[in-house]
Design goal:
The structure is a homodimer. The first copy, chain A, has nine helices and six strands; from the N terminus they run βαααααβαβαβαββα. By secondary structure, the first copy, chain A, is an alpha/beta fold. A six-stranded parallel β-sheet of chain A has the order 3-2-1-4-5-6, with helices on both faces.
Chain lengths: 230, 230
């Protein structure tokens, strides 16, 4: 019996990677004289990955990584205009309006009648809280957990604290690496709802033939799947 | 009867503001040609305050605010070297070793025998978790809450979740504004342990004649005060 539904936020409830890609495009344009977009993308991904253990997830760390990448690619001489534009990009990402993905409102409203909903997300603490507030979805959640890493112990802890343990919980999100695999490892169920874009750091293979796993076309399919298995 | 002890982290368990001040000094040196230290300090404080609602608390936001201040004070033309040095300062703050303040280990060990200890702190999620791990104090805490703001509702929620409610809890920290006043407002007890330096944003007057409040010279005095009142 499923009692608790964990939900990822970025690219599961609302757009996120699209915004990162738009900002990256702006970054490529800014440095068009310095290198090709492919080179810029690769270097930025390297710097981001290297900085993850220092900055964690979120827009502030991404902004700092863009400045660092610009410095590296210009031999430490990134023009002030480039730095100003990157700062402005970061600020704009933090104030971008939040719009739930189609069908998310209705799916959550229906789920919240039968299950305890818990938001489980990485990213900057304040920014994730602000996005949830701006989305208008906050009241549907019984609890919100903003975490620095999503591994099996995270899910075991969160579903014990806010539910009846991982065996009676399902995690739903767009990242196989962060939402699906560690939730299954913790003994929970998992639903994968792909988003058209995936950050390179989050890419992983979909598990095959797992009894507690389903791939869904949208969050709207989650209630029916839970009726089936629960 | 007190069952739960909430503890602030930065400047209560380990040094923090000292490190911010050292970094600020380095920032003043970097921009010595541009403005006097007093002017730089004032402008940086303004930018930090303006950015709080966007960046929240912590080193990443502080780093971005230093770059923004440098840009503002140079008419948008901060030299690349200045930006690189600011980035490096931020990175160094994030990797600085963490050393508990004198007497903190023993005081927490003693408190943990009788009370449930809860760490309640603002700042960057990942960085605060890393500092707690590096301090070696993590095992003494029953729970850790990294929050975006410390107001009365925060304390009511945290002490309900991890204890037996605010009336049976005490909050201990170095900020009258963030640790003492909102905890008292929530109905909890509060102990103020001053640190020699206070960030301008955190300054506030010490409450007078409050029955559930004490000012202590160090955390070592907390067990005796709790014996007295509890």
């Amino acid at each position: 019996m499923i009692t608790t539904v964990g939900l990822d936020a970025d690219d599961t409830l609302w757009h996120n990677e699209t915004l990162f890609r738009l900002t990256q495009q702006r970054f490529f344009d800014l440095l068009a004289d310095v290198a090709e977009p492919e080179t810029l993308a690769q270097r930025l991904a390297e710097v981001e990955k290297r900085n993850l253990r220092l900055y964690g997830y979120g827009v502030k760390g991404f902004t700092l990584s863009m400045i660092e990448t610009a410095m590296e690619l210009t031999g430490g001489e990134a023009p002030p205009r480039v730095v100003r534009e990157i700062l402005a990009s970061g600020r704009e990402m933090l104030t971008e309006p939040v719009e739930p993905l189609p069908g998310v409102d209705q799916a959550l409203a229906r789920l919240s009648e039968r299950y305890r909903l818990v938001l489980i997300t990485k990213g900057d603490l304040l920014h994730q809280e602000q996005k949830l507030a701006a989305s208008g979805l906050g009241d549907l959640f019984a609890a919100v957990e903003i975490v620095s890493e999503k591994d099996a112990s995270t899910y075991a802890r969160v579903f014990a604290r806010h539910g009846t343990g991982p065996a009676e919980a399902v995690m739903c999100g767009n990242s196989v690496r962060s939402d699906v695999l560690p939730a299954l490892e913790a003994g929970a169920w998992a639903a994968y709802v792909p988003y058209p874009l995936v950050w390179t750091h989050e890419q992983a293979d979909v598990p095959e033939g797992h009894l507690r796993f389903a791939q869904l076309a949208s969050l709207s399919e989650l209630p029916a799947w839970l009726d089936e298995v629960g």
